[in-house]
Amino acid sequence: MKGLLNDICANPGKFVANKMSTKPYKIIVGLEIHVHLATRTKMFCGCELAYGEAANTRTCPVCLGMPGTLPVMNKTAVEYAILTALALNCEIPSFTKWDRKSYYYPDLPKNYQISQYDLPLSRAGSIEIPLEEGGTKRIRITRAHLEEDAGKNVHTLGPFSAVDLNRAGTPLLEIVTEPDMNSPGEVRALAQELQRIVRFLGVSEGDMQKGHMRFEPNVNLHIEHGGQVFKTPITEVKNLNSFRALERSIAYEAARQYEEFLETGQTLQMGNKKTFGWDDVHEMTVLQREKEEAHDYRYFPDPDLVPVEVGPEWLEEIRGRMCELPLAMQNRLVSACGLSEYDAGVLTGERATAEFFDAAVKLGADPKRACNLLTQVGLKLANEAGTPVDQLKITPDHLAKLAGMIEAGTISATAANTLFERIAKNGGDPEASAKEMNLIQSSDSGEIEALVDAVIAEQAQAVQDVVQETKKAKKARGFLMGQVIQKSGGQANPKIVAQILSQKLDAMK
Ligand code: ZN
Ligand code: MN
């Protein structure tokens, strides 16, 4: 082993496992994701879900873990979980049950979490993630199961700790992937794609700031040397709640593990998995503890809850609620509407935006023009108002009309932006608003011809440059164009001006 380490230390660049990477190792990452489901009430009691309410105001004897209380399953939470699992191409077994996972901590007054152990509600799925360099990659999903969230311990109130149980009992969907990701960027892409999916499905707000999605990557390295692969011990980074922390912690862990391997030569063995936290300030992982094995949790079936049978009829009913998924929609906007990958990605960032766009195109809008208006003006206004774009006063019909008016040369693209903003804020008809704001372009060729004649008479030098095709000809033509538009007070349709100007100048050659 010593010889190998010296060898690697002397020539780290020689040990390139992944040809795409210049690093002497391949990163292996699997992910565990906890997603808050946006049901009205908690998983096993009738308390309403709330964020930012006064501590312990959304609690009852069930979620406080009082002895003698009985949990009642939230059917909507199960349906949201199954819908998400279907979107992740999972198998949905017809029989699933609840288990108790024991652990003793102040934020969990029952001393156990209701979860699912050996018979989860879904398994063996996959998710397609878009890659930065283009194309997609399929990541296998091991399972997705339902459980309840714990409360929150608070350590900032004084020389004591407090506990807020408003969150205790919130439905949580735990999604576990296979270790199929090989870079921090791929892990980020998966996290973001999943966020887009749960938002499209309407099963979660997926708000990172509110802790709706929490990530726990399992990271290790494969280091190749002399035809042999050395695997470093797996580390799990707990409770990451931003894409940035997720990406950085993996990059950090990879570098740290490689260094540790060079120092110690330690490789993956049963029982040497470690748990780390992420220090956001110093941007480094911090060792927390050696990992408990599953049997430490003393899982056993919850005697207070009946197992769940998912019959074909119920399953079909849930499947009927499936919508077109964001990546499929993004690909369709590229192939059917001719949008760029980037534009299609922006539009499918939110379902409301994507459907607004779709509706406008169905009403005849030119896709590129509709996309520009929607992404350049619509999303900015929606963002300022803190609402989805379909909550503004503008409708897909308005958008289609605006796009049509640009196409017909009735208004300029700049005028369309102004009109979009006005209608989004105050409502109103696009054409009437355009007239009212004096934004209609003149396409009256008689009127434009008179302006062209006047400019030709005034600008003899520029005209000469064009007619004699001097070096300045191109610039002169642009100048004449500008003069005509200016004379019209910015109202002349540039296409028609260019046409008439060309005719006149060509006739003088
Ligand atoms: Zn409750
Ligand atoms: Mn969990």
Structural class assignment? alpha+beta
The outline comes out as elongated
Bound molecules: zinc ion, manganese (II) ion
**Strand fraction:** 15-25%
**What's the rounded overall pLDDT mean?**
89
Count of helical stretches? 16
CA distance, first residue to last residue:
86 Å
Largest sheet: 9 strands, mixed
What proportion of the residues is helical, as a percent range? 40-55%
Low-pLDDT stretches: 12-21
The count of domains is: 3
* Cα Rg: 31 Å
Number of strands: 16
Overview of this structure, please?
40% of the residues lie in helices and 19% in strands. The longest helix is centred in the middle third of the chain and has 22 residues, at 243-264. It contains 16 helices and 16 strands. Strands 1, 5, 6, 9, 10, 11, 12, 13 and 14 form a nine-stranded mixed beta sheet that branches. It has a three-stranded antiparallel beta sheet with strand order 4-3-15, with no helix packed on it. The protein has a two-stranded antiparallel sheet with strand order 2-16. The protein folds into three domains: 4-309, no CATH class; 326-426, no CATH class; 445-507, Arc Repressor Mutant, subunit A (Orthogonal Bundle).
Walk me through the topology.
Blueprint: H1 2-10, E1 26-36, H2 75-87, E2 95-96, E3 99-102, E4 112-115, E5 122-130, E6 136-148, E7 152-158, E8 160-164, E9 171-177, H3 184-201, E10 213-225, E11 228-231, E12 235-237, H4 243-264, E13 274-279, E14 284-290, E15 300-301, E16 308-309, H5 312-319, H6 326-337, H7 341-347, H8 351-362, H9 367-385, H10 396-407, H11 413-426, H12 430-436, H13 445-458, H14 460-467, H15 473-487, H16 494-508
Parallel strand pairs: 12-13
Antiparallel strand pairs: 1-9, 1-10, 2-16, 3-4, 3-15, 5-6, 6-9, 7-8, 10-11, 10-12, 13-14
Helix pairs in contact: 3-4, 6-7, 8-9, 8-10, 9-10, 9-11, 10-11, 13-15, 13-16, 14-15, 15-16
The structure holds zinc ion (ZN) and manganese (II) ion (MN).
